Amino acid sequence: MKNLDLTVKLGGLTLRNPIVIGGSPLAGTARHIMDCVDAGVGAVVTKTANPVVHLQRYPRPLYKLVDYRKNPQDPYAVPESYTWMHREHNSVYPPEAFAKIIAQASGYARERGVPIIGNFTARGVEEWVRIAELYASSGADALELNFCCPFPPEGVARSEEDTRIGIFYTMNPDRAAEVVRAIKRVVGVPVFVKVSPDGSAFVRVARAMQEAGANGITMFANNKLLRIDVEEGKPILYGPTAATHPGMMADSLRWVAEVARAVDLPIMGGRGANTWRDVVEFLMAGATAVQLVQAVMLRGLGHVREVLDGLQRFMERRQYAGVAEIQGKALKHIYSNLDLIDKVKPLYAAFNLRQCTGCRRCVEACWYDAIKFYRKAVPVQENCAGCSLCSQVCPAGVITMRERENDLEHFRAMASAHRDLAPADITWDA
Is residue 368 part of a domain? Predict the structure, then answer.
């Protein structure tokens, strides 16, 4: 492969590539952290540690793969669609002990140019500051403040104080800003904040974090989802639980893009990401780096190299010299509904009747009465709303979308079923 520049600048850190291992069992011990470094990632986020004893032990780690179709002929095959559900605990090691784990792995990682980002959560400001100083002094190159896990307000909190941890800070961005400001006063390493997708107003949260001095933001942890075993009539994993699946990437991308356009903060995306293509989508949506967890847990650390190889092949094929040329590329093409009026022309469907197989697939998918069937599908252009669904379901690929000459033709098509009820400015005069 060509000498491609995979490096990225992440809030004061220089990463050899944009792939980051997210906080998880993948980085829960010194040996695992070093194994992640050897796998070729750009940075490693450690497993979340917290100071609450019962939250170090519960919930017990338990996983469930839903709609996960296995292939006996290929034991390592992972389906494109599945739901990863889990009841995952924070580290069993309290922050004081986990700081020693970071110390054991930091020299190894630093020699190989891979930053360790210490992830933890806490309750009051003093506790946050104490752990931040401890992690920084133990060799963490940056901190990731976990403002999403655990979920004690709905879980196993045993006191009012213990509810002010994890997700509490996404729900209360003013309190989160206090924590960031206090930590930034005492540590010299970059500080990232990880927000929960079960919160809201992410642009407001991101702006508050930027104003407080955060060096970056991570979007997101897993959502709390519910699936039902219909044969047993019981919830999978006993009720709503943390979960993700590839389809959730669309929601992650939406928020990454909105935050990227609103604040000047590097973003680590990742929820729903599995493949090199997913990584490219996150980068183009405005992410600086992409965290991987469940994809690597299922496929093994060798998957990191597969993702990097795929990324490099893509860059060669599309003639990108460096990752910096990919980052944010799609943002300028994200249109509002108002933009669509001025920048996007209406469409209509055109058919290659010679190659039409007469399967009727397009007819069943058209809800604008714009296709008639006479042994083959015949378009009715004056009725076509230009939705393009027919072109996407056609198995023979004989339908293409073309631009209309003017908006009036489009509005006539939209109102063609009830001409007598059409607005006065939509006319059928020549």
Answer: yes
